[in-house]
Each structure stands twice: as C-alpha cells, then as structure tokens.
Prior knowledge:
It is a single chain. The protein is α+β, with helices and mostly antiparallel strands. Among the domains are: 117-152; 154-251. Helices cover 32% and strands 20% of the residues. It contains 6 helices and 8 strands; from the N terminus they run ααααααββββββββ. It has helices at 2-6, 10-30, 62-67, 80-89, 106-111, 118-152, and strands at 156-162, 174-181, 184-190, 199-205, 216-221, 230-235, 238-245, 248-251. Strand 2 and strand 3 (184-190) form a beta hairpin. 8% of the residues are buried.
Amino acid sequence: MGQNSIRRSPQASLKQQHSSDIFDAEFDDMWPARMPSSTRRYRGDVKTEVGRSRPDVQPLTLSDTRSLPTRRKNAIPPRRTASIAKNQARKPQPVDTEEIFPKLNLRSLKNRSPRFHWLFYCGMALLVMMLGWVVLSMVTNWWQVTQDDWHYGRPRTFQTDAVVGHADSAQNPSHFIAINLNRHVEVIEFPGGDASKAKIYLGPVLLGQNQDLTVVTLSFKDVNGDGKPDMIVNVQDSRFIFINDNGAFRPERSGENLQI
C-alpha cells in the first residue's frame, strides 16, 4: 500500500517533465548564459567598416525578440565612442531668422513735426506771395469791371451837360454823349439840347484786349487861351483835345500852344 502511494502515475511524470522542458527552453531563450566576469565585452560600431571583424556578440533571432518583455531594455550599454560619433555627425545648421522691427509709436509719429531747410520756407513764402498777387489782381480787375458795368453799362457810355457857346445858355446847356462802340470812340453833341442840330465827333480807335470795356469820359477847359472852353476826351491815362472853333470842335493841330 505504501509503495503504491509513493509510486506516481506515468501521466503525472510526463506532465512534470513536459512543464520543466518548457520553462527551461523559455528561460534559456530569454536570459542568455552569463559570461565570465574576466571577459571584456565590446559592442560593435554603428556602421561596420570593411575589413573589420564583427564583435563577439550573441545575436538574437526574431522569435527571441518577440518573446522578450516590452519593459526590458538593452542589457548591453552603448559605447562612448558611438555617442561621440553621433554628436560629431550632427553639425549645427544655420537658423533662419526674420528681421524684427521695433514697434513704432503712432502718437509720436503724429506729434513729430517735419523739419525742412530754411530755403524751403523762403520758396513757399515767395510762392504764396505770387499766388496772392495774381489772385488779388484778378479780384481787383473783376471788381473794376463790375463797377463800370453799374455806372456806364455796355457799351460804355458817358453823358454830361456843358455851356460851350454853341447856341446854348446856363438854362439850356449843350448835351454831350461819349460812347465806346466796339473800340471806336464817338462823341455826340446836342447844341442847346436840340437833337435836330446834333453833331458827331469821331475819336481814336482803341487797340488791345478788352478795350471795348474801357470807359470814355469828357471834360471842358480852355487850353489855348481864347476864352472858349475846349473839349477833352479822356481814355484811361490818355487825353485827346478838340479845339472849340467856329461853333464846333476840331482836333488839335500840330504846333499849337496848348496848356492842359
């Protein structure tokens, strides 16, 4: 009975032998045999050179790497020469940098007044003076023409009464009309105010731009000293004298002593 209790069944012995074989195979693959401590282990370089023998390292198969645990790291530490070679292989690359401009203060730019040369200010002053003179001349001319339109109309016409001794008197003076008709100066006399005895005296012809707007006026003065008033036609700064002779007026003659 005791022998029977000590004796094991063949199935149990086979199972134990099979399990021990599995563990032995597993541990043999996962954990390589320890080498003697007196032996120095070398790791091969990253790149194998021609003519150089490979290091004495036990290679691992694909099945062995699959069976290794994921958390286990490489048992063989890297050589210093490998890390130095990697660091030497990495050359510093130039870094592209963009130009960074300082931020401009808009308020300071607005408040900053531009500075110019003093000749610039002199030129601007002269330009303003010239423009002012041109504008002032245009305004003055326009105002003068407007006033003449109000007083003399178009065509320019001037009228006056005077006693010149042509069948007239202080009660019935002669009436004179001076007109600038298309640059032609004409004077019409009504002796004693009688239009039936009207006389026309032709004056000068005016030349130049806008001379048809020139005002013609009349004045009477004794210029030759005979005691009779003579007629003076005034055109701007020019004067044309008509001598009172034989009940009418005639243009002056050369050589006459006249005192205006």
